[in-house]
Amino acid sequence: MIVLFISCRARTTTPNKYKYSLNVSKVIYNKHKDILADSIKVFVTERRKAYYPTENDSLTEFSIDTIVYSPHVDKIIFFVITKNSNNKLPSNGSINEFHYEARCFIAIVDSNELKSISWLSAYNLTNYHSYEKVSNRIRDVYFKNINGSRRQIKFNLDDIRFWDDEKIWSNEINYVEIFEDDQ
């Protein structure tokens, strides 16, 4: 069994009466993680939405960092972290140094099968110097701070109300991409 929200539970601003956590079988979690990785590989190679910058290519490394399931396991949110060589940056850094970026995606689940996957572009993290730092920061943003932002997402991911916001799941929200740089 996988327990989600471990690292952020004590710091979240979600009121206790709306907090939830969910255990999902390791088999289902790993199955979804593999499918999501294959899907993100297509996003990167075809330079779809979140991966349109030229720095993302066949050499881009990525990992599915976190998967969060809705209470009914019919929707998921997941974080993807990419690693690219600094020589792909406009400043032409060293090929032996790297930067990390984190993005959030949503997906619909039907009978344990993943259906549509979309980029939730409300908050993106760029140019972090370590995987751990960008991983911790994206969790902090979406579990602790997204509901206090000026964006149209009103609830944190561990808030039961987040999962019922049809604007998120029908892509009706007009996102303003906010990029946060580690520099």
What does the model show?
The protein has helices at 26-45, 131-145, 166-169; strands at residues 2-3, 23-24, 61-69, 75-85, 98-110, 113-128, 179-181. Mean pLDDT is 79; it is low at 1-11 and 174-178. The relative contact order is 0.17. With 183 residues, it is an alpha+beta fold. The chain has three helices and seven strands. It has one domain.
Q: Helix tally?
A: 3
Domain module count: 1
Ends distance:
37 Å
Helix proportion: 10-25%
Low-confidence stretches: 1-11, 174-178
Q: Compute the gyration radius: what is it?
A: 16 Å
Strands, total number: 7
Quick tags:
183 residues; alpha+beta; two-stranded antiparallel sheet; 7 strands; globular; disordered N terminus
List the helices and strands and how they pair.
Elements: E1 2-3, E2 23-24, H1 26-45, E3 61-69, E4 75-85, E5 98-110, E6 113-128, H2 131-145, H3 166-169, E7 179-181
Outline:
The chain has helices spanning 26-45, 131-145, 166-169, and strands at residues 2-3, 23-24, 61-69, 75-85, 98-110, 113-128, 179-181. The chain has 183 residues and is of the alpha+beta class.
